[in-house]
Design a protein that fits this description.
The protein is α+β, with helices and mostly antiparallel strands. It has a single domain, classed as Ubiquitin Conjugating Enzyme, CATH 3.10.110.10. The protein is about 25% helix and about 10% strand. The protein has a four-stranded antiparallel beta sheet with strand order 1-2-3-4. The chain is globular.
């Protein structure tokens, strides 16, 4: 009796061989950063035209449009009034679909800022949307200075002092004047 193969039966392809250390790795997929670059250039122009009037500014650091240094002036009527804070902003190639990484470079005593300058604010985490821009981020952080979220503090000491504004202000100014930069 003759056995014939059935053409309607599909056999799975053979399992691929495991990668060998001698095989060259596939080159990384090239990323088109031109749209991100254009967006950041547009945001920079917008910020230069209006940001300074609002007490916030930011400019690229060096040659890369993906690394910026920002400045936030403390809001009027807050314990941060007349203080100026330097921040670093790092944008990924996924921006604006992912938020920038932002941290304080100037020491900042605040319930939502840790000893390393990391910031806990919802728009840099789960509330991020591509509609936000650098100006929005800086203004939100400036607003956070005067209105902390004491429900989820990074700095528990600052959160506990917040209710005593006189003592809190002393600590803010003490750290600011000491020029203690966040530890890296």
């Amino acid at each position: 009796m003759e056995m014939r193969s059935n053409p309607s039966v599909v056999h799975p392809p053979p399992e691929p061989l495991p990668p060998s250390s001698k095989q060259p790795k596939a080159p990384p997929i090239p990323v088109d950063t031109s749209s991100v670059t254009q967006r950041l250039q547009k945001e920079l122009m917008s910020l230069m035209m209006s940001g300074g009037d609002l007490g916030v500014s930011a400019f690229p650091q060096g040659e890369s449009i993906f690394y910026w240094i920002g400045t936030i002036e403390g809001g009027k009527g807050t314990v941060y009034e007349n203080l100026s804070y330097k921040l670093s902003l790092q944008f990924s190639v996924d921006y604006p679909f992912k938020p920038p990484f932002v941290k304080f470079e100037t020491a900042c005593f605040h319930p939502n800022v840790d000893q390393f300058g990391n910031i806990c604010i919802d728009i840099l985490q789960d509330k991020w949307t591509s509609a936000y821009d650098c100006r929005t981020v800086l203004l939100s952080i400036q607003s956070l200075l005067g209105e902390p979220n004491n429900e989820s503090p990074l700095n528990k000491h600052a959160a506990s002092l917040w209710s005593n504004q006189e003592e809190y202000k002393k600590m803010v100014h003490k750290l600011y004047e000491a020029g203690e930069a966040p530890h890296v």
